[in-house]
Amino acid sequence: MTAVWLNGTLEKVVDARISAFDAGFQHAVGLFETMTARGSRVVHLHQHLDRLEVSLRETRLSDRLKSGPLSDAIHATVAAAALETSRVRLTISGGDLNLLHGGAEGHEPTILIVAQPTTAYPDELYEKGIRATVADARANPLDPFAAHKTLAYWPRLAELQSAAAKNASEALWFTVSNHLAGGCVSNVILVKDGEFTTPLVRGEEPEGGLPSPVLPGIVRAEVLGWAAGEGHLIHRKMVDINAVLEADEVLLTNSSWGVLPVVGVEREQIADGKPGPVATQLRAWWLAE
């Protein structure tokens, strides 16, 4: 069943309510994390909460929330759902926050955790790969919120809708300088001649360089760790569309689907148009995580 935890209490789904004046609803002031739970175990929970803590601090949403109590609340919600596999969403909004009068100091954020049946991704997506489009929107490195998982997700959802209208499953975002950022809901890793290349994310920028508008993905980091352990060279750098189209494999990572292979971008084919050996290996790795 679906379980809901709201501001310290497990609630019935029909009883879970937030204020009409909540800053998340009024102004999209908030952050979220989406995780996968297998039974009672939440995959990469501590990595998600560590990333969230950084975002809470850097966006100045809250400096009072800590990983320990949030972890306990997530486990309680997952246990109440009692599902074999669940999608877990943690949302923290500004609460009844008036940013024009006093800002975030001392306010109480809204904390919502939902554990529900996970989205089932067909095996065909992994076995045959997906197609992606190129998003019309562009990521701006000067946007201080771009590399955080904020509630302002409408532009990404709109690009996903546009991709679906073209029979594609994801849209690749580029920056205003036409360098690859990621997907609407994923990070991107390129494989070429056994070497892994991925765009710089927040925290990986060279000294004196522009900030990255790319969220540091949890599964991205785990995949790069796996690749390094297998002896592959890792490159974190700015890349353009040519690097994407010339790759042997293009991989999309997130905490819902794990690792998805891309076999075509717009009208262009990636390599031989089939998932490669790295994608196959990583599929098995993800299922064992």
Please outline what is shown here:
It is built from 8 helices and 15 strands. With 289 residues, the protein is α+β, with helices and mostly antiparallel strands.
Describe the fold and architecture.
The chain folds into 2 domains: 3-117, Aminotransferase class 4, branched-chain amino acid transferase, N-terminal domain (D-amino Acid Aminotransferase, Chain A, domain 1); 123-288, D-amino Acid Aminotransferase, subunit A, domain 2 (D-amino Acid Aminotransferase, Chain A, domain 2, Alpha-Beta Barrel), CATH 3.20.10. The chain contains 8 helices and 15 strands. It has helices spanning 23-27, 45-58, 67-81, 123-128, 154-165, 218-229, 241-245, 277-288; strands at residues 3-6, 9-11, 30-38, 41-42, 85-93, 110-117, 130-139, 170-175, 180-183, 187-192, 195-198, 234-236, 249-254, 258-265, 268-269. The strands form 2 sheets. Strands 7, 8, 9, 10, 11, 12, 13, 14 and 15 form a 9-stranded mixed sheet that branches. A 6-stranded antiparallel sheet has the order 2-1-6-5-3-4.
